[in-house]
Amino acid sequence: MAATIAGLLATAGRPLFSFEFFPPKDDAGTEQLWRTVKLLEPLAPDFVSVTYGANGSSRDRTIAVTHRLATQTSLRTMGHLTAASQSVAELEATIDAYGEAGVRHILAIRGDMPGGPTVPWQAHPEGLPNATKLVELIKSRGDYCVGVAAFPDGHPSRNDLALDARLLLDKEHAGASFAVTQLFFRVPAYVELVDRVRSIGCTLPIIAGVQPITQYSQIERFATLSGAPIPDDVRRRLEAVSDNPGEVREVGTQIASEFAEDLLAAGAPGLHFFTLNRSVATRAIWAGLRHR
User: Fold this and answer.
1) CATH code, domain carrying 58
2) pLDDT at 54
3) In sequence order, which residues have a C-beta less than 8 Å from that of residue 37 and are 6 or more positions away?
4) Which residues of the chain have pLDDT under 70?
5) How far apart are the first and last CA of the chain?
6) What is the C-alpha to C-alpha distance for residues 150 and 158, in angstroms, rounded to an integer?
7) 150: domain range?
8) Which of 48, 61, 78, 196 is placed for a possible disulfide with 105 were both Cys, Cβ 3.0 to 4.6 Å?
9) Strand partners, 107
10) Are 265 and 215 in contact (CB under 8 A)?
11) CA–CA distance, 146 with 8 (Å, rounded to integer)
12) How many CA atoms lie within 13 A of 269 on its CB side?
């Protein structure tokens, strides 16, 4: 049996590297995704993952992409699953669909309400109240290796770092084997997160998420998604080249490369690249890390 992500984290003796994709909405997006997969697969990442709409909106497309990755490529594949806006029966159907495709890794996420992460959470009347219960449900459906989300800058809906740490510990007790961070841009936030959860007994390996800013228009959007402002030095470097899209991509990739190197130096057991279904920046960062 192939090693699980948890097994690799425990035995690899090196940081893991992985890529995240999202399910395309149209034919053009589909062609773009599979071009990217073709370019990234030769890099032999330790795993890849496919996102799932915050409220289950991309369920069928996520399952289809995950199935194709698992059956038509050499890539160890992880499907995402969110609890928001879905009944237990719907969640069980998705879990079982992953299993039928041979996908044994699932990233369990509470998800957001349709209005975004700051909209007050409300459980589906026939659903689950949180990600901890989702982990329990997944584990009850079979031999799955389950990952969960971690928030270096705090979950945007709570702004309570201590509570976030306790919830991560709860997820570990429920059966999670590792965590992947949401978008963030400060290495100290990652280090503080690890220290915080270790201080209360959480032992989950925490893989750090990395995403370069390759368009100036992404700055505010990424700040909203991460729940924290873009660091001033990052903003200044991008503003200095904001009139030149090519230089924005180059500077954004360089900033992400420095960020990745600093995360590894800080002890991150893995880096998870949010590719946005593009390969150029990811390959550039990867190449730099290989020769560090």
Assistant:
1) 3.20.20.220
2) 65
3) 21, 48, 69, 73, 75
4) 1, 54-57, 115-118, 291-292
5) 33
6) 13
7) 15-213+269-278
8) 78
9) 80, 147
10) no
11) 14
12) 19
